[in-house]
Records
---
Amino acid sequence: MESAPFSKLISAIEPSQTLAIDSRAKALRAAGKDVIGFGAGEPDFDTPESVKEAARKALSRGYTKYTPPEGDRALREAVAAKLERDNGVRYTPEQIVISCGAKHSLYNTAMVLCNPGDEFIIFSPYWVTYPAQVIMAGGTPVFVSTSPEDGYRIDAGRLRSAVSRRTKAIILNSPNNPTGWVASREELEAVAAVAIEHGLFVISDEIYEKIIYPPAEHTSIASLGKDIRELTILINGVSKSYSMTGWRIGYLAAAQEIAKLATRIQSHSTSNPTSIAQAAALEALNGDQGFTAMMAREFLKRRDYLHKRLSALPGVSCFSPRGAFYAFPDISGLNMKSDEFSIQLLEKVLVAVVAGRTFGSDYNIRLSFATSMENLEKGMDRIEGFIKSKL
Ligand SMILES: Cc1ncc(COP(=O)(O)O)c(C=O)c1O
């Protein structure tokens, strides 16, 4: 082929590395190897039985046809009730769009907001999908760094100096993947002040809201006042809170005009999220919330264990995650970059971690602790052995 006939934008995107390492680990496992996976971005718990039962009932009653493109009204009402109950923000069902996962809601948001060359501010380290989606929508990611020395706090001065005439939005992710940072109210107020002053949208990805370790608390930036609520596109979903990653239900809540445009995109792309999965998500949001609390307690125990083990390793330092289920240790003391470290770790001691380069930080690795305590112990013993062999 003379010149590639494919989209330049899409050709510039790398495949999602977090899924790639997981696939490699699964392939080794399929070949009979005893691989410990710290790569996964999904809770290791089964979806609650009551949620599965709601899906079975939906199937039995023949709830298997197209739904409205923006999602079932009952589910949008349940999301509105949840946002008021948990986050203190009021939205009407017309301001809510259900999609095939929060990732899809984020993609719709980028498509709705972005004109060619618009800039989107992303705090680094970042979840790999944000810059990829901005590029796919024809925009330009602009990175603002945060560091473990100041607990990954947002520096308002640094944020302000990244704003240009072309800035369209700020992407916020608290609790954070990969760092485990959780935004304080003061940090959110600072971000809101910048957004209001410059008329910038705030895309607030709150997917890890329920996986949070006291005394950290989740605050939605949309709850800080009317002006910032109007500029915020709040993103959330059921994947992480109810261990429903495969069901693919997420949502956005925003000004009605944004919701309308996101619905328009869906009407011409996916038509609607799966009917049965919507029935399941309705039960997740309206039913007993004990499962989510149990899961968060379990993650807390694992966080404590993993952080202790990582901090004891020579050449490694680790911020203690306040939320989500990832540890993001700094391995710069080992004189190895993250790709080399993670490839060697998988091939030599059969432990899968994700290279920090993927998240814009080449001297870190990401370990998901969405795996059993037994696996954590075994995996950490292997990592310890690997690191000691390098010294
Ligand atoms: C920060 C962040 N946002 C969104 C998502 C996607 O969630 P969903 O499964 O609802 O698409 C993930 C999944 O890994 C994530 O880490």
Note: Residues 8-47+290-386 form a domain with the Aspartate Aminotransferase, domain 1 fold (CATH 3.90.1150.10).
---
Amino acid sequence: MAQPVLKWAGGKRQLLDALYARFPESYDRYHEPFFGGGAVFFDLEPAAATVNDTNLRLVNFYEQVRDRPEALIDRLREFRDPEADPDPGLAFDSETRRGTAVEQYYYQQRARFNERAYAADWPEGDKDLLEEAALLLYLNRTCYNGLYRENSDGGFNVPIGRYADPDWVQAERIHAAARALEETTVHDEDFSYVLEAADPGDLVYFDPPYEPMSPTADFAEYSAAGFDRADQERLLAVASELDDRGVAVVLSNSGVTYDRYDEAGFFVEREGATRAINSDASARGEVDEIVATNVAPERRRGPDQAALDDY
Ligand SMILES: C[S@@+](CC[C@H](N)C(=O)[O-])C[C@H]1O[C@@H](n2cnc3c(N)ncnc32)[C@H](O)[C@@H]1O
């Protein structure tokens, strides 16, 4: 069993049992169109899979983990304590993109990260792509609350975290994740790629950015692009089309989507989940969450039953 390498908002570790209880007893390939930290995928370690995310930095990260785990670990070992002074040997050591003086090593790495890659001029060379992945993990493990958050212009803007002994190398997790990803195709497209990728008999688990419970709730923290009501409707249409084609579908979302999935003919149940990452302490409690599936109860693997492949 592997574990997520990155901390990611909306991580699904607390919901694993509830999700597995709805999985079919057997299926062919596994697909995860909103990958994020990949909590379900890494726990499951499917033999054949596709995963996908629109965040290019995330997609590059998993490709580097899969293809160059040793080089990535070696590079990560070269990073220094986040509170140390900036390294004069590295570029972008004096100011952030917004012109603030950089006085600590952490802010220097954040500035380097933000000066580097954007979709328009994404680096081509292996060395740059490796550096990109190493910076993402370093910042993820040393920033405040392990949050990934971008400004509207795509800059990563999370401040330094206070950890007694931060471990940004994560060698064991990288090795285990590399093995789990070995036979996996990583896509960087809209979630609807799965209409092409999934065949009858496959299983798709959708974990989209949740639809806000109230109009004021801010769920735009995953990437600068956001995921709006029209995307939620496209998602329901894609899930329904997969259902028509004989693909097993399991989906989590916020409670406000209950009626829509119910009316579309899915089995829907409410689950309470504690958000793993929420910078607002008062919102750390239970949230209203649903799990929808087209897998009929008699075809499910069930809560206590291990999958046949486990034997
Ligand atoms: C709720 S998170 C997934 C969390 C993940 N299950 C975990 O355990 O960490 C949603 C992910 O969807 C991605 N995303 C947003 N819009 C998307 C789209 N149109 N197609 C595919 N992925 C998208 C975001 O970048 C984010 O990583």
Note: The beta strands are 30-32, 49-52, 184-187, 203-206, 248-254, 267-274, 286-293.
